[in-house]
Amino acid sequence: MSIHCNAKKEDIEKTVLMPGDPLRAKYIAENFLDDFKLVNTVRNMLAYTGTYKGKKVTIFSSGMGMPSMGIYSYELFKFYDVENIIRIGSCGAYDKNLNLFDTILVDKSYTEGNFAYEWSEKEEHISSSSTILNSKLEETAFRLSIPYIKGNTLCNDCFDGYLDDINKFISRFPKDLNIIACEMEAFALFYMAKYFNRNAACLLTVVDSYYKNQESTSEQREKSLNNMIKIALESL
Questions:
Q1: 80 φ, ψ to 5°?
Q2: DSSP secondary-structure letter at 178?
Q3: Under a CB-based contact definition with an 8 Å cutoff, are residues 48 and 37 in contact?
Q4: What's CA 235's distance to the chain center, in Å?
Q5: Active-site residue among 11, 95, 107, 208?
Q6: How does pLDDT run across 52-83, given as a tens digit for each residue?
Q7: Which helix (H) or strand (E) holds 173?
Q8: N or C: which end of the chain has fewer CB within 10 A?
Q9: Domain annotation for the chain: domains and CATH numbers
Q10: Torsional sign, CA 59, 159, 119, 6
Q11: Model pTM greater than 0.90?
């Protein structure tokens, strides 16, 4: 066990799917897994281990933001010897061509924050996903005929929808990165994977857009994530 997880080591599988919302972890377990059991309840950060088409997998919620993701990914990699973590979450679109419920596979994650400096005193603001995992996820999406967009995303510390001047915020993005969407956890996950020499990837579903007047309810968000969930699970 670790500080933030009361699961036994043998209860956590080598591949972990990581939604942010604990209730989303519960939803995935109840709707996609067989013979699943609840393996973590600390701070209600629910985790379940079960089988999908005969393959063992753990679904472990991360919470919101890089600090929370940093804690849970660190403990899973270090104390539970997890080899692969696939984040499955929601995002906001910064590309005019993206629509509500589109699926994104993240290539690189950019942050203005200082997660890397606090961890290792390095001025790093770009962290990359695993090419091994991404290749597998792309193969699976093609096999399932599920369309996706691969691109770079922003990992922010503040929920952009609450900012006073979002246009000024967007103007600071590095132009060469062509950031297509934003979320709040991927940079920390990729950085921890690099630190432990493990694999991490991130699949996202668009739930709102800066350019289009498209929004979704919490219930629609939950149901719309199924394409992303299927890609991750079928990649097992």
A1: -115, 5
A2: -
A3: yes
A4: 15
A5: 208
A6: 999 999 999 999 999 999 999 999 999 999 99
A7: none
A8: N
A9: 9-234 (3.40.50.1580)
A10: negative
A11: yes
